[in-house]
Automatic annotation (TrEMBL):
Subcellular location as annotated: Membrane
Keyword line: Membrane, Olfaction, Sensory transduction, Transducer, Transmembrane, Transmembrane helix
InterPro entries: GPCR_Rhodpsn, GPCR_Rhodpsn_7TM, Olfact_rcpt, OR51/52/56-like
Protein name: Olfactory receptor 56A3-like
Organism: Echinops telfairi
Keyword Cytoplasm in annotation: no
Translocase recorded as keyword: no
Chain segments annotated as transmembrane: 29-51, 63-82, 102-124, 144-166, 205-229, 241-264, 276-298
Length: 315
């Protein structure tokens, strides 16, 4: 469709093309296999964790409900990105419609922020368990989990919804090639014939407000946990207390580290290959999703025992 503005005729585009690693075609070959394996691992491990928590009555506790929520977020994030990337790698299916692109953008921003929020809620859970153990059953209840899930969904959906809306309202003409494997806000808005200043400022403010506040509260929770642990005098109490939040801390550290590396690499993009930020962004959608259930399954005795009992029953 053609559009005329100020006497100039523009051709309005109707879809986008994801230019996924076209400058490095060899990357597609060696990356497709590990990416496929990580995707299958993430889907399988999270599915097993969800089934185990659902069927094992001993795991029907608030902490494991939060872990189930985290697994569901990981599954959605993987399904939102990885199948399309693999379709590009294997079948060169690079075109993506406007609606699919902006839907992917919303899910990516919303669910990534929700995952950060769940990590923050789980940090609070560990804080109460260690610093206020006698009050834990009265504070961390099923109702608390329901309210926390509603809060995470509402806060992050409302805060991230304007990002794809602002991006979709821009005028796109001529160039429709996205230099990315994913419909990120920055990659898409760069193709617009309009100024996307408000769009970019909002994403920056919303991103740092959501992720920044979560990281601050997580850091505060673990600072208070560490202070309480150092005061424990009973033999073995410190080791047991640290063990209860060890899995959670490992996952938070990995989630934050890979996100920080991605941000720093994106800022210094003139000094690194343009493919590196794209690769890091892609891996950030699948590696944490694959590691989360494995780390919890290995380090949490109750989950290991639950999986073993289900395997013995043959489900």
């Amino acid at each position: 469709m053609t559009t005329q503005q100020n006497g100039t005729v523009f051709v309005e585009i109707s879809d986008f093309v994801l230019n996924c690693f076209v400058r490095s075609p060899s990357w597609k070959i060696w990356l497709s296999v590990p990416l496929s394996l990580l995707f299958l691992l993430a889907m399988g491990a999270n599915a097993i964790l969800l089934i185990t928590i659902r069927l094992e009555a001993s795991l029907h506790e608030p902490m494991y409900y939060l872990l189930s929520f985290l697994s569901m977020l990981d599954i959605v994030l993987c399904l939102n990105v990885i199948p399309k990337v693999l379709a590009i790698f294997w079948f060169d299916l690079r075109p993506i419609s406007f609606s699919a692109c902006f839907l992917q953008m919303f899910i990516m921003n919303c669910f990534m922020a929700m995952e950060s929020c769940i990590f923050m809620i789980m940090a609070y859970d560990r804080y109460v368990a260690i610093c206020q153990p006698l009050r834990y059953p009265s504070i961390i209840t099923d109702q608390f989990v329901i309210k926390a899930a509603i809060f995470a969904l509402a806060r992050n959906a409302l805060m991230t919804l304007p990002i794809p809306i602002l991006s979709s309202r821009l005028f796109y003409c001529g160039e429709n090639i996205i230099e990315n494997c994913i419909c990120t806000n920055m990659s898409v808005s760069r193709l617009s014939c309009d100024k996307a200043t408000i769009n970019r400022i909002y994403q920056f403010v919303a991103g740092w407000t959501l992720l920044g506040s979560d990281l601050i509260l997580i850091f505060l929770s673990y600072t208070l946990i560490l202070r309480a642990v150092l005061r424990l005098k009973a033999e073995g109490a410190m080791t047991k207390a640290l063990s209860t939040c060890g899995s959670h801390f490992i996952l938070i550290l990995f989630f934050s580290t890979i996100l920080l590396v991605f941000i720093l690499t994106h800022v210094a993009k003139k000094k690194v290959s343009p493919e590196i930020p794209i690769l890091l962004n892609l891996l950030h959608h699948v590696i944490p999703a694959a590691l989360n259930p494995i780390v919890y399954g290995v380090r949490t005795q109750e989950i290991k025992q639950g999986i073993q009992r289900l395997l013995n029953k043959g489900w």
